[in-house]
Amino acid sequence: MRGPLRSIAATPSVLACAWAIGLFGCAPAMPVSMGHPLLGSTSPPFHETAIDERSVDVPGTLRTHVTVIDFWASWCGSCQQTMPALERLYQDRRAEGLVVVGVSVDDSADEAARGAEAFGVSFPIVHDGGHGLQYAFGVSEVPTTFVVDRSGTVRFVGRDPSSIQRAVIALLDR
Questions:
Q1: Which pTM was predicted?
Q2: Which of 100, 109, 144, 161 could form an S-S bond across to 127 if both were Cys, CB 3.0 to 4.6 Å?
Q3: For position 103, what pLDDT does the model report?
Q4: Is there a contact between 155 and 162 (Cβ–Cβ < 8 Å)?
C-alpha cells in the first residue's frame, strides 16, 4: 500500500514539474546568433528622424517588447530577401509590441527612400549618412540585423530572415 501512496504523494511535485516544463519548455528557442561584440550587451541608444519624418527611438516605449534594427542598403542583393521578410514580420507582430527600424547605409536619403519603396517596407527607415549608427553597432557588412529585447539587451545578431523571425517570435512568446 505504501507504493500507491508514494505515487499519490508525489503527484503535486510531478504536476509542478510538468507545469514548469509546459511553461518554459514549450517557448520557441532562440536561434544561434552570429558572433558579435554587442551580443548580450545593451543596445546603443539613439534618437533619429526617419526619412518620412517619423521619430525613431531606441530603446522604444513601454509598449515596445522587441526591437529589430536592420542595417541595409538599396544596392544590397541579400537585402532583397531580408527587407520584405522584415516587413511581413512587422505587419504580423507589431500589435504585440514589435518595432522594426531600417538603418540605411546608402550614400543619400533619396537612395534610401527609393530602396525602401522598392522593397515595399512601411516601417521607419533612418538614413545613416554619417555612419554614426553603423560605427556604434559595429556593422561592417549589410544586411546585419540586431534583435533587442524589452530590457534593451541585444539577444540576436544575424542575416538570415528565418533566424531573425525565430528570434523575434521567441522573445515575443515569452
A1: 0.84
A2: 109
A3: 98
A4: no
